[in-house]
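Intended use. Records like the one below are meant for learning the mapping from a protein sequence to its folded structure. Do not use them to infer anything beyond what is encoded.
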Amino acid sequence: MQAQFFPKRHVTFSRRSGRRATRAGFTLVEMLVVLAIIGSIVGLVGPRVLNYLSESKVKTAQIQMENLSSALDLFYLDAGRYPATEEGLAALVLRPSNASAWNGPYLKTNGVPKDPWGHDYLYRAPGQNGPYDIGSLGPEGREGGAATVTRSKNAQR
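Structure written out for the chain above:
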């Protein structure tokens, strides 16, 4: 009688030594432990990252409002007045019909930028605290929201 040899890939025990054949790979328990560790790290770090993201959007809005304020000051130097509320911030890009001396556009972009949340900036002239107010609606898209950002001409820098 001749002995038959079987391929090792299906055999769990070696015939000669009685030891378990080694296989490459991870067990289900090992993978679940790794997933639990990754999940706990994400659970601890995730809220902090989201908080930094919301803070950075507020800072971006403040910087954009500073740029708009500088452009409004240039408009004032040329035209002798700030744009009316009806003209809005678009007067920084397109010449208003009643502006005699306009040397714009006063913004480097083709249009008035939107705030970091995708809303138009609010502009009011005269403002409550100075010649104009610039504001953002924040993430909620309404005035007076939790992250509403406002800048007046006379506000401290």
